[in-house]
Amino acid sequence: MRSASFQIHLASKLATALLAVAGSVVLLLALTRFIPGDPATVILGSRATPEAVAALNARIGLDKPLIEQAFAFFGRLFSGDLGEDVFNGRPVLSLVLGALPNTAALAISAMLTAIVLGVPLALVSARWPGGKIDRLVAFLSVGFISTPSFVVSVFLLMVFSVTLRWFPVLGAGESGDLGDQLWHLVLPTAALAAGWVGYIARLLRSSLLEVLSESHIRTLRAYGVSEAKILMKYALKPAVLPTVAVLGMGFGELLGGAVFAEVIFNRPGLGSLIYDAIRTRNYPVVQGGVFVIVLLYVLTNLIADLSQSLIDPRERARLVSGRGAVT
Amino acid sequence: MTALVDLSRRPGGTFALFAVALLCLVAIAAPLIAPYGPNAIAPANRLMDPSLQHWLGTDHLGRDILSRLIFGARVALGISLSVIAISLTAGVILGIASALSPRAVDLAIVGIFDVVTSFPSIILALALVAVFGPGLGNVVLLVSIVFIPHFGRVARAQTIAIRNSPFIEAEKVLGAQSWRVILHHVTPNIIGPIFVLACMDIPVVITIEAGLSFLGLGVRPPLASWGNLLNDGYTYLDQSPWLATFSGLSLILATLGFALLGEALRDTIDPKLRRTL
A23, A128, A221, B76 - which has most CB atoms within 10 Å? Predict the structure, then answer.
């Protein structure tokens, strides 16, 4: 049975996450107040009639005080209303939900690619630290981490689509044709994953080395357990914890990075939706899109945080027994 | 000097020092070393391949790519150093204030930091630019807001760690005023890790500025930002690969150089920071 301290831990994490989301909504709504001039005039253009401007202000809720606007936003949110597109009146929620699967597919496939490539690289580097492979991986990971994803996107597009013509240049593929969609996903995924492969490889390598220097590993070596078994069975699990926490944050950063991949590869998605809305000053769509990204970001961080305390037996024991920190 | 030698011995340290020194030199001496003006248009020479006249070729308006990249170094370094200076100052002031204030004020400041960091950095930068509009000044101010919590949190944690140390207590007992304690005793003792963080944040700022400019939401053309150049190269990718290639490589050189320098600095100044930064 979980003790009260676990529930307190869960509640405090949830409360922090909720506060962050609520605060970001207030920030987003407050930002609209800073739009130079009257937002409705900016959206509708200088030739709009005063009636149209007043009607739009009332529709966006700009004629009310900020706090009232925030409460109204949350009130509408619970009934699934994120506002309307100012140009064609379409509900923002349906625009966001329409775009989300494309972005989610991109972010998830990038994260999976990064894990599938990053973990073995970390294992090899930690098995022979200071060796040739370790040095090569160290060099490549710093290179990939520091290269902006939009530069990688443009380079991949230039080499594989424009010059070699191996991959399609633009779009997300024919809807309904899964093979075509996956084919269109290859380059954007590679562009987004590149930095994270390096990041996971480095992070996991250093925590593996830390675990490998502990005394229980020395005991295992003294008993003659093979290095491969020590690495896979005894070192990987505790070493993977810091990486899990980073992955939660990383998923949110991937959603941000998706803006570039989607614009460059001309893919529909949350990033390109927000980008187009910014260019056309369609503020309700910007607000709605950014809100959903923040929500996902906070949520993945929360999940990573909680799963870390559930995977780590030391942390779990501390929470269940209600004792202080073990260390 | 010994610090420099130490730095160059770290993995990638020599490359980092070389890349950063080269960028700074190019940025400072831009008007002296650029073979052409950054905005000198020559439509007859559009999209030329590299040649003796134009070492890296020309863009779609016949402008010399090398000259634009050289002036682009000024924009990248100028913006990133300004952003770091503003966010470091504001972050350190807020962080120290937060650590030394009553709990309510501390909670309020930490709450604001939490809200700002609940946005992925590029998304917050986009949301801010969507409201305040693009342009050089706005980009500097808005990207600074994104980075204030980075410095604020480290400054707060460091201040909390030393605020009850005997030497601070001793100063207080001797009757030193709060501003004196903060300026002469707290700040010098917390600035090391913050300086390292500043160096590690430079490549991130360069990336965000170039990213915003690439999307047409940062520095306005014809000002030569590497992001604008990469976007021009991307637009004419099917006709000429040179602009995209060289502007991308400039960005990689700068971000890689500063990232390696930041890490080498961190390890040189205090290897224990590896855990926190």
Answer: B76
% pLDDT > 90, chain B? 51
Give me the number of domains chain A comprises: 1
Question: Which one-letter DSSP state was computed for residue A235?
Answer: I
CATH match for B2-276 among 3.40.50.720, 3.40.1350.10, 3.20.20.70, 1.10.3720.10: 1.10.3720.10
Chain A residue numbers touching B119 (CB-CB < 8 A): 24, 290, 293-294, 297
Look up tokens 């925590």; give the residue.
A207
Interface test with B, best of A60, A154, A272 (most B CBs within 10 A): A154
Measured CA to CA, the distance from residue A164 to residue A187 in angstroms comes to: 13
Q: Which residue, chain included where needed, has tokens 């409460």?
A: A71
Q: With contact defined as beta carbons under 8 Å apart, do A17 and A299 qualify?
A: yes
Asked if A256 lies within 8 A of B248 by C-beta distance, the reply is: no
Please check whether residue A267 is in contact with residue A192, taking contact to mean a CB–CB distance below 8 angstroms.
Answer: no
CB-CB under 8 Å, A274 with B241: no
Nearest CA-CA partner of B206 in B118, B130, B140: B140
Q: CB-CB: which of A146, A257, A278 is closest to B256?
A: A146
Residue A144 falls inside a structural domain: yes
Q: Which of A148, A158, A257 minimises the CB distance to B237?
A: A158
Closest Cβ–Cβ partner in B111, B118, B248 for A297: B118
Taking the Cβ of residue B119 and every Cβ of chain A, the question of whether any pair is shorter than 8 Å is answered with yes
Q: What is the CATH number of the domain that holds A150?
A: 1.10.3720.10
Per-residue pLDDT tens digits for A169-224? 777 777 777 888 888 889 999 999 998 998 899 889 988 998 888 888 899 989 98
Question: What is the Cβ-side half-sphere exposure of residue A139, based on CA atoms within 13 angstroms?
Answer: 11
Confidence of residue A79 (pLDDT cuts 50, 70, 90): confident
**Cross-chain residue pair B248–A260, CB shorter than 8 Å:** no
* ipTM tops the 0.85 cut: yes
Contacts of B118 in chain A (CB under 8 A): 20-21, 23-24, 294, 297-298
- Does the distance separating the beta carbons of A162 and B237 come in below 8 Å? yes
Instruction: Classify residue A52: in a domain, yes or no.
Output: no
Q: Test B115 with A23 for CB contact under 8 angstroms.
A: yes
The answer to whether residue A87 is domain-embedded is no
pLDDT digits (tens, 9 = 90+) for B43-80: 888 888 899 888 999 998 989 999 999 999 999 999 99
Is residue B120 within 8 A of residue A255, CB to CB? The reply is: yes
More confident call, A137 vs B214: B214
Give the type of residue at A203. L
pLDDT higher than 50, residue B239: yes
- Segment 174-203 of chain B within 8 Å of chain A by CB: 203
- CA–CA separation, B163 and B97 (whole Å): 12
Residue A295 placed within a domain: no
The whole model's pTM is what? 0.88
Task: Place A272 in a pLDDT band, splitting at 50, 70 and 90.
Answer: very high
Residue A231 lies in domain: 93-267
